[in-house]
Amino acid sequence: MDFSLSPRAADLCERVASFIDTEIVPVEQEYEDSLAEARVAGQQWRPLPLLHALQAAAREQGLWNLFLPSGCEEALGSRYLPRGGAGLSNTDYAPIAEQTGRSFLAPMVFNCNAPDSGNMEVLIKYGSARQRGEWLDPLLDGRIRSAFAMTEPAVASSDATTLETTATVAGDQVTVNGRKWWSTGVGHPDCEILLVMALTDPQAPRHARHSMVLVPRSTAGVRVERMLPTMGIYDEPGGHGEISFTDVRVPLTNVIAGPGQAFAIAQGRLGPGRVHHCMRLIGLAERALELGCRRALSRSAFGKPLADLGGNRERIAEARMSIDQARLLVLHAAWLLDTRGPGAAVAEVSQIKAVVPKMAQQVIDMAIQLHGGAGLSDDFPLAAAWTHARALRLADGPDEVHSGVVASHELGKYRPKRGTADE
Amino acid sequence: MDFSLSPRAADLCERVASFIDTEIVPVEQEYEDSLAEARVAGQQWRPLPLLHALQAAAREQGLWNLFLPSGCEEALGSRYLPRGGAGLSNTDYAPIAEQTGRSFLAPMVFNCNAPDSGNMEVLIKYGSARQRGEWLDPLLDGRIRSAFAMTEPAVASSDATTLETTATVAGDQVTVNGRKWWSTGVGHPDCEILLVMALTDPQAPRHARHSMVLVPRSTAGVRVERMLPTMGIYDEPGGHGEISFTDVRVPLTNVIAGPGQAFAIAQGRLGPGRVHHCMRLIGLAERALELGCRRALSRSAFGKPLADLGGNRERIAEARMSIDQARLLVLHAAWLLDTRGPGAAVAEVSQIKAVVPKMAQQVIDMAIQLHGGAGLSDDFPLAAAWTHARALRLADGPDEVHSGVVASHELGKYRPKRGTADE
Amino acid sequence: MDFSLSPRAADLCERVASFIDTEIVPVEQEYEDSLAEARVAGQQWRPLPLLHALQAAAREQGLWNLFLPSGCEEALGSRYLPRGGAGLSNTDYAPIAEQTGRSFLAPMVFNCNAPDSGNMEVLIKYGSARQRGEWLDPLLDGRIRSAFAMTEPAVASSDATTLETTATVAGDQVTVNGRKWWSTGVGHPDCEILLVMALTDPQAPRHARHSMVLVPRSTAGVRVERMLPTMGIYDEPGGHGEISFTDVRVPLTNVIAGPGQAFAIAQGRLGPGRVHHCMRLIGLAERALELGCRRALSRSAFGKPLADLGGNRERIAEARMSIDQARLLVLHAAWLLDTRGPGAAVAEVSQIKAVVPKMAQQVIDMAIQLHGGAGLSDDFPLAAAWTHARALRLADGPDEVHSGVVASHELGKYRPKRGTADE
Amino acid sequence: MDFSLSPRAADLCERVASFIDTEIVPVEQEYEDSLAEARVAGQQWRPLPLLHALQAAAREQGLWNLFLPSGCEEALGSRYLPRGGAGLSNTDYAPIAEQTGRSFLAPMVFNCNAPDSGNMEVLIKYGSARQRGEWLDPLLDGRIRSAFAMTEPAVASSDATTLETTATVAGDQVTVNGRKWWSTGVGHPDCEILLVMALTDPQAPRHARHSMVLVPRSTAGVRVERMLPTMGIYDEPGGHGEISFTDVRVPLTNVIAGPGQAFAIAQGRLGPGRVHHCMRLIGLAERALELGCRRALSRSAFGKPLADLGGNRERIAEARMSIDQARLLVLHAAWLLDTRGPGAAVAEVSQIKAVVPKMAQQVIDMAIQLHGGAGLSDDFPLAAAWTHARALRLADGPDEVHSGVVASHELGKYRPKRGTADE
């Protein structure tokens, strides 16, 4: 057993951390202020120039597309090499993802943000040469952005078999009709391509009914109905949109891996994606704990620093212990993904998704409490952090669904073995 | 022991509830939509006409200023009678306050919203005839609004002895200098008067140093620096503001009850105010639970209504049990305020403040989870409800401070009696 | 609304409290030591003389059988009056039950202990004149003891329809066969009568299949197989037994209220019984909190009293707040039982059963923690208190079942009304 | 990063697990029954022959003294090799310790039980040749047992600087006076040697005042006053004793590493000891979860297996997630002990001690609840397991103290660096 990072990962992790500390954190408030001004002017749905400068610097330093999984360079050939990627395993990338979670700006700066990273992985694993050429290359360059349109307002989308948006195949065309929401990133002016999960064949077996369709944002019939706030926070410029699809026609070649493959694709996308989400949340929780500790030491009431009042120390200890446990759980799941493959790590990946957002929410809540009213305002990144963690208790499957997967797996150990799966 | 409402309270409570159900809840979404439009137009800091119509109807039906405590009619004389008030005890008003908590619009509609209600109580109990004439009358009519400026950004304001804003007395003038924030209601265009708690005599005994000064909003040197979001929510049109006071001069007659009386005034304001806050939160938690139950019954996943999945029923039961316990605790505290007076109910009032916001936050969080992504958006009043409950874990003293009061009181029962108080 | 005790209840409550403080608490340790000696000698399953002396004193002071519900004196006629009872409502008796919960000895001293009190109530409400004469009179005198045999080792007895012990009627005889356990009190040498719930007619409607049979302990075929420990604690001399019934024959007249009535009887027994259990647990939690506070003030570590270390104050406050909330919930349920009857208070009675034992367990756990190792030993009544509270999370229906009742009731408010009950 | 076991550890771990499954678990109930019989006969404080047979088998299979840390073979020379030990690092031994925690009998069977293992480590690291010869050899053989006498009834022993028992040096003699309790193992007839921590020089610096004295159990003046129950459970035949020392004289050569070294010795003993305790608790929690799952699948109520009722699945998932997180935390702490040494792992070792017993208590509590009344009885190892986990929230430092260490360490990261330690 060895808990140390590989030299490669350690080096990259340190460089990423250092870039965040020296280049990103110091400009966060400036960025926030510019965004606030843009809001007043109704210009908040476009990226701030600051971001592009940071991206250029990151790319120049080789801190670009680090999420790209080991193996993909060979798969993609030499033309992708200059676009970054370090051939990292999930285990090696995880600590880097944690670092990027410390600042809300960082994932975008390193081109490692959801949903683009997951969408790129899908195109690498399942995309045709044409699909890759058209959308993967500019995504790898950060020239365009993408969205993943799965969740629907009308159904409990955590049970993805209930999705109602249709992708009807007729000849060499696919027609999409329906409504999606919480499509992250769709507010960004560079968002050019949507991955839409939709029902193609209601008669097929449960997990072969849906297709994953590449729908250019500009196709006729695609309409962003509104951008959705999370507790009043819009996460501009990407945001989260509600989108209607009305007789949206794209060529059949836009269906990734062919009709009926959406579940297989989504499953392949989810394992590493959840590791990334969870590690970023751990970074966020670390940031909150740091802010909380600093506040606890620097503010006083009733003649003592907050750190010495009531149960504050116990809460700080509790935060440290829950973060450390959660991190180890995610790293272990990443290692299982690497060593045994996604199929053998389903329960462990559900574990991290059930554990980490709740943990992060609690740690951040504690840090907010230590900040008093300031913690609720936008003077600190805590309110946005809390909102983000809260949203991730629902996004990508609510806690309860993942908890159910873990329980089924656990009970399965003691059931008489039969051919059928639990529930 | 008798848990039934007095006939008077029961009648008013039912009429208030019925007004909310038939007049307010049905227009909530319309109100929200109008507010959203106003935001786009930069017009969100003014009241919507809808509200005035509702206020007029409520006043006509005698559902106006019901918060006014028993005894105040006599104190104020007949001219206040037509302005409502029913001479209710804290115990009798509490269930009405619960009802008004079910809709974010209701407290304003019935002229029972914080901080106006508390400020009116202060003027009734401590105000001079002139102060009452100038500000109490229009407040009772709902013609103007007020703010309470106590919390400061620079100090841990839960320890109010640390407040740094100064109110310097010179001759028959008072000069206020400093900075306050989280002054609720100050964004409202009708907000004409601020009650400012400020330091007058640093040499006086700890609780006689501060004065409560009536500062008209239009006085030179008063500047609302910005409005503060709570997790991105601004609570327009009243909102919460950060205010700077620069050499703000008002006559000495604007000091309520004379210099050095701010603590005495604040204490008298707090008992009933906390009962009101807590009962409204209980109403809010009831609303959230109702929404949660309805969603749990109407949405299905994995072939069952959410109500029949996982631990949802246990969480619903937990919510019911924690709401009912919290309500009884608040009612009991209100009864102690009525029967023994504020001095004998300090620990019990701190209990409710420590218990209820946390309880409400949890119940609302559960209801959000049952709603999936919709719960985080503004399609339901849950996101705003959550934010409000979260803020009240800090506003008016953070949980930890109230918890400390309860503990000191509890331990005090077993200490050798001495002359000195516990901490 | 009025939270004050009736003068009658207040007087009795104070006298009971005073009796416990002056007569019982001071001899607890002596009692424990004698019991420990008796254990070494194998004599622990007989009452200690100390108890009889206390009982005599309590009876002489009119503090005897106070649990007897209002109405029962008239029902029973004058011969029961000298045996005590004060005609108290559930609401009035509840605070007295709380007092008796403070000491493990008290319920027995006042002849108000489970299961005797519940069994007496059953005989009063449902017993025939012969049944009352034979068993109620000596129970009221404390001359004999009784047990309630419902739970079975072989089935999940919280679903009482699954009970398998049979009570077969043939002619004017009933034959009982089966196995019960956790029959409290059966270890006591004075335990002469068992109320056995058993299956008579498997073809009858679900809730009319079982009968409640009075089985004298000395009947042939009744065998106490063993006494059961709870975490190693046996609660001698009454204890909790596992009993086998092998062809146990009693006359048909021993069936209370006739065959098939067991569910009706059990339901009638449960409402007040749960109020009693819960109020005693509240008394127990109060005792634990008192011990915890005293320890927190008298022990020091790291240079400070425990009360001033870490989160101890917050935990003490938490205990106070959860006790007070739980007490109010139980009092309210008692009041509903009195004013609306058991049928209208089912959900509220389930609430208290789900809330109070868990609350008591937590408060006692906290007090144990403050005592260090001493809290786990038998030097303080805390270990036994903890064990008792833990057991009550299962006895008389596990938390989860009561929680389910509360949830069904809550969801039922929002279901389309139909003729059928939830689940 | 690599979460796999070394081949050596994997092999031993599997063999230990297999021995427990095939040799120990099947005889647990027989052992319990024999012990129960022995209790009736007053013979419970002697080991049952069953145990000796198991020990012989374990030793024969090379599963003996596996706790012995890497490095100690060289230190001790070849004569210790046949007495077992496999030169395992903390990281490698940890999973074996987990296995031994699954059965209360196993640690004794493998001669890896507390406090003997810790005492042997002390003698290896700090003992003189004479001390080793006299006590270490027979301990390694399992011919004698030992106790560790540190905790005192009169002081909050978690602050070990307050210990009051004295070890007065005069000439070449040491005289011990005082009272200790919770000395585990002292009830065993083979317990021949006590390690007593006592005050030698009150004027010395805080952590140099106490000595660790080897006191043979048979020395005049040593008296086991009583054996202490934990919630009624005595853990015979070793148990936990209260011991008085009255003018107990031993030669100065019995002081380990010389007077004043007790703190240094205790610290060196604690790191690995806490890892062992925690890993055993994780094994215990695993056992409880397994029992809980089996019960949840095999028992039905209301027409469904318990596994499908209410929140049971979520609780099972919660247990799995908290066990897995806790295990990883302990393994990581073990790895830090191995790679950085105890001095650099203080906070991490405190973390595991604060996290694991609480986690185990909760998991076991959940499993008990699934078992109904049976879970509280001695029909399952759950009641004893719960009691053991509960006791470990106090033994070896209460949760709160460890939590405080973690918080100090965390806050220390953000303090201005000074020469002095936090508090």
**Rg over C-alpha atoms of chain A, rounded to the nearest angstrom:** 22 Å
Q: Quaternary status of these chains?
A: homotetramer
User: What is the CATH third-level topology name of the largest domain in chain A?
Assistant: Butyryl-CoA Dehydrogenase, subunit A, domain 3
Mean pLDDT of chain A: 93
CATH superfamily of the largest domain in chain A: Butyryl-CoA Dehydrogenase, subunit A, domain 3
Task: Please estimate the helix content of chain A.
Answer: 40-55%
Q: What is the helix/strand order of chain A?
A: HHHHHHHHEEEEEEEHEEHHHH
* Beta strand % of chain A: 5-15%
Domain Acyl-CoA dehydrogenase/oxidase N-terminal (chains A, B, C, D): 11-142
GO molecular function (chains A, B, C, D): acyl-CoA dehydrogenase activity; flavin adenine dinucleotide binding
Organism (chains A, B, C, D): Arthrobacter terrae
Keywords (chains A, B, C, D): FAD, Flavoprotein, Oxidoreductase
Quick structural summary:
With 423 residues, chain A is α+β, with helices and mostly antiparallel strands. Chain A has helices at residues 7-24, 28-40, 49-60, 72-76, 90-101, 106-109, 116-126, 129-141, 262-298, 312-340, 346-371, 382-392, 399-412; strands spanning 145-149, 166-170, 173-184, 191-199, 210-216, 222-227, 240-251, 300-301, 304-305.
Descriptive overview:
The structure is a homotetramer of 423-residue chains. By secondary structure, chain A is of the alpha+beta class. Chain A has 3 domains: 7-143, Butyryl-Coa Dehydrogenase, subunit A, domain 1, CATH 1.10.540.10; 147-260, Butyryl-CoA Dehydrogenase, subunit A, domain 2 (Beta Barrel), CATH 2.40.110.10; 263-412, Up-down Bundle (Butyryl-CoA Dehydrogenase, subunit A, domain 3), CATH 1.20.140. In chain A, 48% of the residues lie in helices and 14% in strands. Chain A is built from 13 helices and 9 strands. In chain A, strand 8 (300-301) and strand 9 (304-305) form a beta hairpin. The first copy, chain A, is globular, with a radius of gyration of 22 Å. The model of chain A has no long low-confidence stretch (mean pLDDT 93). Chains in contact: A-B, A-C, A-D, B-C, B-D, C-D.
